[in-house]
Structures
1.
Amino acid sequence: MNPQSPPARQWRVPPALPAAKLVGALVLVALGLLFAGGDRVQLGLAALAAAALAGWALRDLVAPVRLAVDPQGITVIHGFAGRRRLPWPAVEAIRVERRTRRGLTAETLEIDAGESLHLFGRYDLDAPPEEVAEALHAARAAAG
């Protein structure tokens, strides 16, 4: 590794996020038990929603690192918990998309790799997408 190149960096989900999702799943089950009143459909729907939320939390625990960068390229999460390596020549664009709806602005980091587009929000990265985009652009420039 070139001493001039920046060290590898990673961005991951905030540590409290999977815990919050698991607590939410428990709350859904509790509410289902409390308000179902013997109705199996309501209880089943609450259990299904809780299972989906618990699965989402499991993904955060199994694959907390969503994005990593080093002098050779970017590694992104792919599928449920897989990884995909994108060498710098495969990365066509890195940009931040901003959308305002109902007075709220949401930022999404977009990494365009030709045939694939990888999207990351603030809670995927535990950092502002604009800051991460700047770090990726700097790493790409340092790599040559």
2.
Amino acid sequence: MPTRSTEAATWDAALLRLLEDVYTFARSGPRLYEDWAEDVLAVMERSVADPRGRSALEGQMDDAVREGGHPFHPFRALTAEDLRSGLRPITAGAAVELLASFAQEWFFEGSPVRSRVDRDAVLADARTVLDRFGPDAVFWTSSDLARTCDAPDFLARDLEGGHPFTDLMMDLGLIAVSADEVGVFWSFNAH
């Protein structure tokens, strides 16, 4: 069985390989509230730390804006109801595909995940990142592709936004919720 430090290093490495080169937000936090949406808001506001001390990614975030009175930046000031009404449930398999798709650019992607030589490795990294939330985790997305189906094929198309949670041109989110933790993963079209 891997040691805790080995597990942390494996998770951190998978997260970096997957999302380091794109404009994204990837943070986790503890479950402190009965309502998972309140826990997600705490992560978005950065008022909680990762309970396992793992890495977070916030590509190109403007710290000056946050420090100037907008702690949610780049997200809008949201309520738990905003989150619940703007997100739709998806299966664990769809969540892996969605997170893997965050590794690509929004438009003009020369090599979308579905056609990459390293497709299986990208999917494995996404699975490693989401596996930390356990087999009973539930997943939510802002994608419009999940309006009619809880298992859309996120790799079949280029990234598409859904319910907007920022003032950027487009954004797309994935939420992981377990009994002990939440994960917030967001891709932004801000290039």
3.
Amino acid sequence: MDIVTQGLAGAVLAQSFSKKGETRIAMVIGFLAGLLADIDALFTRSEVDPLLQLDFHRHFTHSIFFIPFGGLIAALLMWPMLKKVLPFKRLLIFTTAGYGTSGLIDACTSYGTSLLWPLTDERISWNIISILDPLFSIALITAIAFAAVKRTPRYAAFGLCFAISYLLVGFSQHERVEAMAMALAESRGHQVERIEIKPTMGNLVLWRSIYEADGYFHMDALRAGLPGEEKLYSGESVKRFELTDLPEVAEGSVLAEDIKRFEFFSDGYIALFPGEKPLIGDTRYSMLPTSTKPIWGIELDLADQQRHTPFNQFHDSSDLTRQTFIDMLLGDDIRIVKEDAKPEPQVMADSLEKKI
């Protein structure tokens, strides 16, 4: 999740292990320990190899097998400042609890986390909560603050219970939306080869569905409101990229290897977007859940294939994009904008009642 919420999760768990009177120091220790796993982002940046960060961010530092080592490292770093305040054993409990949330909470999002390294390099993503979810974060802040002010871990335990319950709601919503998406694919006559369901930013109501059928990725937005109030926003489709689509790429070149690395990072959900310099985009993510336009991708310089490819990000923050997203989130009809024409209202929502 976002780095602040990572710290908050660490703080609330550390407070849950604290005794009366320790909640304030446990809050600080847990918060800082919860941030430590993301230090990998500082050491994997490379101007020569932009994909290095994709390879190693959320890697071994987020593995559940690294938790004891991460907790110990955090305790050793804090011990010189806290040895007059806490016994080392208590400090180690708080740092291990704080650090232990990092990999697990990140695996609940959609980015992908090497949770079981070194047993496997598979990037695990349960897709049950957005990377940024204000309600989740505010609830943790409230619980942490009450625990610190009242000097009792009881409120932290309440916050921990809320966090677990919220994630369970996300799991339930994920399963519900996946059933809707499979019903939609069936209504189109598509044989789904694989599918991913992801929450959109900051909520558990509007979700992005992307499934592969016959070599194409199909994107749709599904709003899982109250039972009977489900809504579908039909989206776009794009062909899945295969290396044979670019015969100009030399086998064994740096560019070819970078394409394979990006494909692994994107779990194979990649598509080619032509241009002066072709772009391979990660189709799992877009500013709008119905869009094929990626928010990041690699730019291909076919004239210089022995140099690492740039990794670019694209964020459409236009008023139209924001309003379209809000309309979907609220379950309203949205507008299609025609080029060189005024916006014309057009309903893009279909009922799934017959399919669900």
4.
Amino acid sequence: MNKAIIFNIQKFSIHDGPGIRTTVFFKGCPLKCKWCHNPESQNFKKEMLYDKEKCVLCGKCKEICPTQAIKIENDILTTVIEKCTFCNKCVIYCIPGAREIAGNEYTVQDVLKEVMKDKIFYEQSNGGVTLSGGEPLAQIDFTEELLKKLKNENIHTAVDTSGAVNFDVLERAAKYTDLFLYDIKLMNDEKHRKYIGISNKNIIDNLNKLSKIHNNINLRLPIIEGINADKEHIFKIIKLIKGLNIKKINLLPYHDIAKHKYQKLGIFYDEDKMSKPTNEIMNSYKEIFDKCGYEVKIGG
């Protein structure tokens, strides 16, 4: 039985494809984007988020933990993650709500049962189900089975992907995917390695190959001042997609609303190097794509 770690099933999504949708967020990603707005999606395993601002150091979590994974020393609470079984008791008994588990194990049938609750909204709005993450294609056996079952129910399917997988994985998903939301972060390979952790070669190659077998690909371009907010990047994107089967583009301005998640995970967030581009810059990029004949939207 196929199982996957899912960290959120978000109802009434309107930015992850057409109509009203349910977005299923898979845990685990081959990329490590410095600006990732879902840092809890990067690790393939369950994680414990701890909000020290909410914590009152009452010690209830330490007392209730069956594996003694929680310690309080010198007014500092720590969790020995190797001992944690993610039994959820500390979360349940934390009155201030300072603890949260990121990720739960689901079967395909579990997810299908949940997303089908809103089928009437998909039908009325021409919506459907979007698989996101993390990287949903990193768990392709589960994803393929789920996509197939959704198509059997006549549900519109979308896959939000980084493209950082073997192409045969994209081929398997393409058979049951109505829309690909394909992310391109950086065209400069050196910068891609620096800010994302891997080369962009496979991602770019896969976009070219996918365009030849699928006729509905939307490009999603995060724009981060200090990283890729320059016209050279935009013109390289245009050169890349010229002649490819891409008609719609989403320009996604950087935001830092997930900064608190990094704190809860104990991850350093280097915000000094990143900022939101101005509206003037975003509109100028939109105008460039408009003139090239693409349907462009700023935002999701």
